[in-house]
Structures are given as structure tokens and as C-alpha cells.
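Sequence dictates fold. Next comes a concrete instance:
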Amino acid sequence: MDLANSLTSMPSWVLFIILLIIGVLATEFGFWAGHRKVKNGINEPTAPIGTAVSAILALLAFMLGFTFSITSSRFADRKGLVISQANAIGAGYLRAGLLPEKQKTTVRKLFSEYTDLLLKLPESNNVEALLDRRDAIHLLLWEQALSLEEQDIPPAMKSLFITSVNEIISLAEERKTVALVFRIPDALWEALLFLNVISMFAYGYQKGISGSRRTFEIPILTITYAVVIVLIADMDSTSFRRFKVSQEPLRSLQKMIRKGPR
């Protein structure tokens, strides 16, 4: 079972409700277990239990912070790659002006289509088809770069264009990997969810032992942790539900290409 994919593809509100229900049930079960011990005359000192519960909750908070750090770092990488990609395509488009007329026209048309395609990717329901076309454009650009060997132009011009094509292809693969491949592993999700359940159970158990059932605290604590887990799942999602990277650098590039020479 692909736990990461199941959690991140689930609607946010559904995941939140599931986590809330599980958290409340774990807390209630813990309270029932602790309260039953007290009713059976088994008295445990509350101080050691309170210390253990605090340690468990702190560990859960640490795991949440660690996991959130991973996803936020990946989100920052995605933003940086959009800027780098827009700059590389823009440089390639401008350097195409140094090419012979035949290659220049073909290459600039490819760059125009390529930019439009990249802007469609984040909102598309048919990502695979767009990625296939992206790869086809990479090959077409490389064919144009290879055709320069037959042209009598300065080596420096050839080198500049070939470098641009290489950089564009490399950045495209890097962005695809960061956006669609790098995910929080299932083992980390399993540990996070297990710790969440154990923490809620331990908190409920402590309340049951002490005999102080505070109904207001139980849902508040559960809601707090559920919200953070949902945010992590949203940020880790390949569909980018809430955390969407601005495509403004590519939109600016698109405007430049449409206004520029063909």
C-alpha cells in the first residue's frame, strides 16, 4: 500500500476528519483505560505519568516539525527551480537570435510552445501527456543544436546555444524529480501517524488516572495536531492543492516571447 500517495491524494477535509476521529477515539480509549484502573483500586502516581506523556507529546511535536521541514524545503526548491527554468529558457530564446535564420525560427517556435506547456502543467489533469510532449521538445531542441555542426558559424555561438539547451533539459528533469518523485517516505508517515495515536492515548490515559476529564482540551489538542498533519500532506501532494508555486516568472517569459521576434 502506498500510504504517502493515499494520504496526499485524499481531499484535505476528509483527511482532517479522519485524523480528528482517530485522535478523539484514541484519547477516549486512553481515558477509559486510566479511569478503569482507578475504579479497580489501582492507584498510580500521576507525576511519572505526566512526565512520560509530556515526553511523548514533545516527540510528536519534534516529528511534526521535522516532517514539515522536509516538505517546506521541497516547496522552496520548487519555487527556486521555476525561476531558474524561466531564466534558462529566456537565455536560450535570446541566444537563438545568433543562429542562422532556419534554426532561429524553428527554435524560437519550440521555446514558445515549451513555455506555454510549462504553464499548463501545474493545473493539468493529463500531466503524463504534457511531460511526453516536453520530452519531445527536448529532443527537437537537441536536434537543432546538432544541426549547427553543419553551419559555418563561430564556435562560441554554437557553444552558447548548446549550453542553454543542456541547462534547460537538466532543469526540467530536476524540477520533475523534485515536484513528482521526492516525497515523504511511507516509513515516516507510519511513524508520524503511530506517534499521533499513541500521544492521544497517553494524554487520555493521564486524564483518566488523575480523574480530571476536561472535554475542552481533548478536541483542541486533537484538532491542533490534525491541522499540522493535513498541512504536511497538502505540501507533500503532487497535485499541489493549497501550496502552489507562483508561475509568474514563466508568465513574464511568455509575454516576452510573444512580444519578441519569431
User: Anything to note?
Assistant: Residues 26-35+48-259 form one domain. Residues 46-95 form the longest helix (50 residues). The chain has one domain: 26-35+48-259.
